[in-house]
Structures are given as C-alpha cells and as structure tokens.
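INFO batch 0412 | record 1 of 1 | parsing
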Amino acid sequence: MAGGHGGPVRIDPALERWNSMRENVYKSFRFTPKATVQVFVGLVAFPALIYYAAASTDLKYKWTGRRKGESLTA
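INFO prediction complete | emitting tokens
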C-alpha cells in the first residue's frame, strides 16, 4: 500500500547534513559554560527536584481503609 508510487525516494541534502552532524556530535563536543549548565541541570538539579518532591510527599497520605469524608493525612 505505502510507497512505490512515484519512483525512488528523493534524498534531501539538508536533512542528510543535519543527521550526519547529529550522529557525530560526540566527536566535537566541548564543555563550554552553557554546556556545563545544561549538564548540571539535566543530571543533578532536575533529578534532585524530583527526589525532593517525591520524598516530601512520601507517607504523607494514607489511602488504605479511608471512608468518605475521612481525612487522608496520616
């Protein structure tokens, strides 16, 4: 059903250049100030924020055995 109706697929040179750059970015990566901030936020700050949110609400609510109108706070 799909494909084969208009001949071979045309290759977009701009898309090929972008894909090649994306595949080889590790060869030219350098820690600039901007990259350092992005790495810190992605690998330290964001997971710490998620951990803090999870730890602060852990065991705060008790869902088992509660009836309508009873408080959920433990």
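INFO post-check: Helices lie at 13-23, 33-57.
INFO record closed
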